[in-house]
Specification:
The protein is α+β, with helices and mostly antiparallel strands and 231 residues long. Helix content is 33%, strand content 23%. A hairpin with a 5-residue loop joins strand 3 and strand 4. Helix 2 packs across helix 3. The radius of gyration is 23 Å and the shape is globular.
């Protein structure tokens, strides 16, 4: 178990100061260790500001060197034996789900990979993909946003079923490349923005149909479609 930062209510992140209830020694949080302490929590690394800055510089330099080596001589992507193609997002293997490739070469002779534990997959998708998309839309459309990944996780349907079409929601594209069954965050009243109580998960297919139309407009389309369809 990772200790929680009492001041934020979340796990510590690099650069955090000691919680306000602790004695301040000027040290900054760096990372959690794998070692478990007697209280059941992971041990932690705390650095002086100078040491943390040096560590950040070293990591940045090492990352730049890895990227340079990759650009000059990229290693091939590993092949998924189930598809005979390079691994793609959402492929599964040994209890983990493939997230993507990295711009780095591995000692094994292949391009770097990022794998997520199955139990962490939904949270990762909501945090990295869904939140990224809605922040961009909120900025482009100049609409309010007051939600985060934790809130999205709390309202995600369980079981993951589209409330409109009753189909199972699955992150990513299906085998045919379609996003019809992929969860899509819908604004119930579009102009109110991405705020608590105004968003709900439906299927990508349902959201493609709904878009920003009003119930009255959708009803008109439905009645017209029914009228034009031969019985």
């Amino acid at each position: 178990m990772r200790r929680i930062n009492q001041d934020t209510g979340k796990e510590f992140k690099r650069g955090d100061v000691r919680p306000s209830t602790y004695k301040q020694d000027g040290r900054l949080f760096h990372s959690y260790k794998n070692k478990i302490q007697s209280d059941g929590c992971h041990a932690e690394n705390w650095y002086t500001s100078e040491a943390l800055a040096n560590e950040n510089r070293k990591q940045k330099k090492a990352e730049n060197e890895r990227r340079k080596a990759f650009r000059e001589n990229p290693y091939p992507k590993r092949i998924n034996p189930k598809t005979n193609k390079p691994y793609t997002k959402a492929d599964k293997e040994k209890g983990k789900i493939f997230w993507g490739h990295t711009s780095a070469n591995l000692e094994s002779g292949s391009e770097g990979e990022v794998w997520i534990k199955e139990e962490d997959w939904l949270k990762q998708c909501l945090q990295q993909t869904t939140m990224g998309n809605i922040k961009k839309r909120a900025k482009e459309q100049d609409i309010p946003i007051d939600i985060d990944a934790e809130y999205l996780l709390s309202i995600y349907p369980n079981p993951p079923i589209c409330p409109i079409f009753g189909i199972e929601l699955e992150m990513g594209r299906d085998k045919r490349g379609s996003i019809k069954s992929s969860p899509s965050l819908d604004r119930i009243v579009p102009e109110l923005g991405y705020v608590k109580g105004n968003v709900i998960f439906i299927s990508g297919y349902a959201n493609m149909i709904k878009q920003d139309a009003t119930p009255e407009e959708l009803m008109k389309v439905a009645l017209w479609s029914k009228k034009m369809t031969p019985s």
